[in-house]
Amino acid sequence: MTDADRTEHQDDKAHGHGDGREAVRRTLGVPDLSLVVLIGATGSGKSTFAARHFKPTEVISSDFCRGLVSDDENDQSASADAFDVLHFVAGKRLAAGRLTVVDATNVQSEARAQLVRLAREHDVLPVAIVLDVPEQVCAERNAARADRAGLPRRVIQRHQRELRRSLRHLEREGFRKVHILRGQAEVAAAEVVLERRFNDLRHLTGPFDIIGDIHGCRSELETLLGRLGYALERDELGRAVDAAHPQGRTAVFVGDLVDRGPDSPGVLRLVMGMVGAGHGLCVSGNHENKLGRYLKGRKVQHTHGLAETVAQLDGEDDAFRAEAGTFIQGLVSHYVLDGGGLVVCHAGLPEKYHGRTSGRVRSFAMYGDTTGETDEFGLPVRYPWAEDYRGRAAVVYGHTPTPRATWLNNTICLDTGCVFGGAMTALRWPERELVDVAAEQVWYEPAKPLATEAPGGADGRPLDLDDVAGRRIVETRQMGRLAVREENAAAALEVMSRFAIDPRLLPYLPPTMAPCATSKGRTHDAGGDEGFLEHPVEAFAGYRADGVREVVCEEKHMGSRAVVLVCRDESVAGERFGVPKGVSGALYTRTGRPFFDDPETTERILRRIGACVEEAGLWAELETDWLLLDAELMPWSLKATGLLRKQYAAVGAASGAAFPSVLGALEAAAARGVEVGPLLDRQRDRAADAAAFTEAYRRYCWRVGATEGAAEETAQEPAAGTDSAVAEPSGGLGDLEGVRLAPFQILAVQGHSLAGLPHTEQLALIDRIVAAEGAVLSRDGAGTRDGAAPRDGAQDRPGLLATTRRILVDTEDEASVAAGVQWWLELTAAGGEGMVVKPVQALVRTAAGRLVQPGVKCRGREYLRIIYGPEYTRPENLDRLRVRHLGHKRSLALREYALGLEALDRLAEGEPLWRVHEAVFAVLALESEPVDPRL
């Protein structure tokens, strides 16, 4: 051995790994959500160990915090403030569900006690990793550091003494795991392995069948499993010992398998078999917890059905009782499943406890919480935690019997009191379908009648201001996290609270729509350069650039955007949407306001649509009792009377009064030989533009319906300064004469969002509804008042419903593009507003994954005169108007589209009102963002 080798060997012995043996690699298990406390004297290598085994962001060092508050990591006078910072940051990380490592000496019990307390406050496990390194090693390491070269040896010795006193008591202090590494070799050979928490099964995505409280009702459980599609397996005695689903579904039991019912051992045998075979999962209920303590020999009261279970277990052998005891002891408090979107527990669980591990979490998951009061039956009053729940994950639980299982704030209680003569209920996930079987008899008399007091068994609660106030972040499936600014939320709250319909009937608001790219004024293949501001060529080119080949061009009806929620009858509206009797749906504007002040007018329209849906056979075909339609309600004057009179008719009236006299004077001057030719020509052009402006808006206005006194009103001359074309009755409509509704999309039905259905299929369904109206009118004998054709520019088909004309265009085929342009020219020449160009397939993305505009509007030349003013087609004005900034409008359209889709998905999935309303409200909030209103 050389001198160098001998010196190294002596150093190894001094450092604790010189016995000639290599240290055995040690695996240190650390829960993936925990507070890891490193313990060791100064110089023991804690920072080096932390850097080697944990992410830099996971480690909080006392030295670093000391430097933050004093600019000197060794300033011991700043330690108190430094540890305040350390505890604050650690608390924030734990609250966010992040693994956190504390790098400090932590050799004093008082310092560790604060950290254990911090872990308990956030319901995570505290883990201790001790680096027990010889004093000499610590001294040499400190001496090698310039900032610690003068550290007194007594400091290291004090740390070592305190460490020695602590080693035997760490578990008693509250550390759930303690890893002690003795000597440098063990420290170097250690490997930290993150362990998944027992309750973390996010990697299991189902599908699941979640089964409510069983309480010994084995026969009903077998029947329910059969109805869910499971095949039972029996032993030689005919007892059910397993059940498997042919499609690989997994049963999840919410606990309370035992007590009160006729066969608790039979239920245990079946559930244990399913869990053991991987066909089921089970969480602990309070009754299992009590039975487990009994089986371990603890003294418990034989109440609340335990006496019956004990008597039934007496008929089983010791092996079965031991197996049952082991099974119960291994049950966890709750499971987090399906990527974090589903939580199953026994008595419910607030979001802050999801995935956490502590006695407090286990207690809440098994017993729930109470208000501290007792009811008239002497039972504790349950705290209604579900009323305040706002979590993303659906929480499915049992524990508190309720007559029926209903959703409340993304939570549902499945205990429907089977043992008390009610039913046994299961929830299919992710379908959110309920399946139940009735109890065969009353097996146990309840202490009090079943009532809807369980959180989740109630019908809900009013929306909370906190749901929408302030800056909001809404998670969407199509565009991720979308922000709503505080000032926009305030504006939306003003509109929603003062003018909107009942939010239970407001499940969707349509997004704004961006126009096509601005025409560059070039000569187009069809029609030549005629001063267009918008032209279909730009729409087709835009979609072609996005990789969209097939588009559908839909006629743009000149009316007001309308959303129609129509239910099959009043009972459906009451049961599904919780509205009072006499209401069968809703008809509202794109800002959520009712279209008609008169409820009977709304109901008359809804009844007509519902009858047409029935006649078309769509209730049965779509397997729904309600549907949501996107539509256009005409005429424009039906809802925009104030705008027409004040903004458009006033311009028309002023020009009609001014130009005749101006032209008369100029013509007289010209007749006298005055040189006014250029001025006269210019004024004639202006008069023609004004006349074209008046004609443009008059095309979309006509009288509708009849009310009491309507005969006198319509016979009177309009007041000065108004336009007779925009007059309308002030109250509700006595009939539907002249009213037209053009639906163009079925947005959602019971259990399904149809927003992803191709537009060709959508329009085919709509055509069937429209076509069915003729049979409905014939059958019901509608007279000329309620079914007559509208006047003054409306389509000539009788009835309420109007067809949306369309044409398909291949954006890569020049002939097809030319045909689409020609169709648009003919449509607008005949007085049409224009068209909307949409990808045939919905939810289209570019090759880069960006969401494509769901539709762009291409408005006609004369219609844009209403928007941009009578003289907008003059070359100098067109040149100025072509500088249009569309980026913000397009961004707004996509964000509102994603929010609308999210609302539809949440509605179809049966999520609670606040979740649906969150996305709907965000659409309205974005509407207050500043953007050019002419776009």
From TrEMBL:
Instruction: Extract the SUPFAM superfamilies matched here.
Output: DNA ligase/mRNA capping enzyme, catalytic domain, Metallo-dependent phosphatases, P-loop containing nucleoside triphosphate hydrolases
Which UniProt keyword terms apply here? Kinase, Transferase
Q: Where is the Polynucleotide kinase-phosphatase ligase domain?
A: 491-709, 735-930
The cross-references to Gene3D superfamilies, in alphabetical order and at most eight, read: 3.60.21.10, DNA ligase/mRNA capping enzyme, P-loop containing nucleotide triphosphate hydrolases
Single GO MF annotation: kinase activity
Q: Where is the Calcineurin-like phosphoesterase domain?
A: 207-402
Q: Which Pfam families match?
A: AAA_33, Metallophos, PNKP_ligase
Region described as Disordered: spans on this chain: 1-24
Q: Which InterPro entries match?
A: Ap4A_hydrolase, Calcineurin-like_PHP, Metallo-depent_PP-like, MPP_PrpE-like, P-loop_NTPase, PNKP_bac, PNKP_ligase_dom
Alphabetical list of NCBIfam families matching this protein: bacter_Pnkp
What name is this protein filed under? Polynucleotide kinase-phosphatase
